[in-house]
Amino acid sequence: MFRFHLEAVDSATGARAGHWETPHGVVETPAFMPVGTRGSVKGLWPEQLRQTGAQKILANTYHLALRPGAEVVRDLGGLHRFMNWDGPILTDSGGFQVFSLSGLRRMDERSVVFKSHIDGSLLELSPESAMKIQEDLGADCIMCLDECPPATAPEEKIQAAVDLTTRWAARCRDAHQRADQALFGIVQGGVLPSQRERSATALLPLDFPGYAIGGLSVGEAPAQMYETVGFTTPFLPQNKPRYLMGVGRPVDLIECVTRGIDLFDCVMPTRNARNATAFTSRGPVKMRNLVHQRDEGPLDPDCSCRTCTQFSRGYIRHLFMVEEMLGPMMLTLHNLTFYQTLMRDLRTAIKSNRLTEFRAERLAALRGEL
């Protein structure tokens, strides 16, 4: 039901190109997953999302458990039918909210109890309930519940988070029932090599179908993130997909593909689009800037999306200045197309064994990126 095939490995870097078979289709890797936190990638219809080249999308356990509730999604046919998305879906476990909503939760060995940011009601996530919720949601790929410590945490706190994450991973594996879902273990450990090694080696005997690297892009410098990814991936199985959670900028995708990552997700292309920032082949463009007011040219002359082929920079800027909802929709379509094109080009470069040259060319073009 789930099969991961490596098609090529770049000889200079070890970067991988392959494909991952899931119950809802094949994902060509390396791949970027747009984020549909509450069951929707903001601003796009599912068919528009397909047009960007997206193969697999991500939704969030914590947010969907609050509204509309996992049982509601289950009773309406599961996430695929609920969203009218027939491709693969991944759900996060809520582990990132352990970090991002630290002021609204209490945690012990058993579980995490959140005070809802919506109405103050309580939501308990244990390894067992996180599995039940994700089984009700029905995603193809689901995640173990984990503890994600901040980048500035002391080593004893990071070690404790690694140990708790490992114990919770075993409970998740024991509680998980659905054979049509691939459960991923999550490697924690901050930017400390010794803790990353401890986490990875403790999770390997649990024999998950895939492994994620969590706890990055939470305040550490980009160079620290790249170093940590480069240190961690050699501990992970060659024959299973590797997922870097919550990363990144286009430069981050290039650098971490070079270090052996297969799957990514991040809100950056969609969130930045809603805030009038476009990713282009020549670096980021802030569309509210006055310089674009009379610009008849396309947003990105190297992009074939509808935004770039049918509308001018001047018009797109106008939409943002008058707060028309079409502006964020246009940039969302473009930004996701840009990301998917970058991933396609990375796959091509790996298969042709020229990733080193491609990396140098693209990083030079993206100089000044956010």
Overview of this protein structure:
There is one protein chain. The chain has 370 residues and is α/β, with parallel strands linked by helices. Helix content is 41%, strand content 18%. The strands form 4 sheets. Strands 4-14-13-12-11-10-6-5 form an 8-stranded parallel β-sheet. It has 2 domains: 32-266, Alpha-Beta Barrel (TIM Barrel), CATH 3.20.20.105; 274-370, no CATH class. The protein has helices at residues 46-51, 61-66, 70-75, 78-83, 95-100, 127-137, 155-175, 193-203, 222-232, 250-258, 268-274, 306-310, 313-321, 326-351, 355-365, and strands spanning 3-9, 16-22, 25-29, 31-33, 57-60, 89-92, 105-107, 112-115, 122-125, 141-143, 182-187, 210-213, 242-244, 263-265, 277-280, 283-286. It is built from 15 helices and 16 strands. The two termini are 39 Å apart.
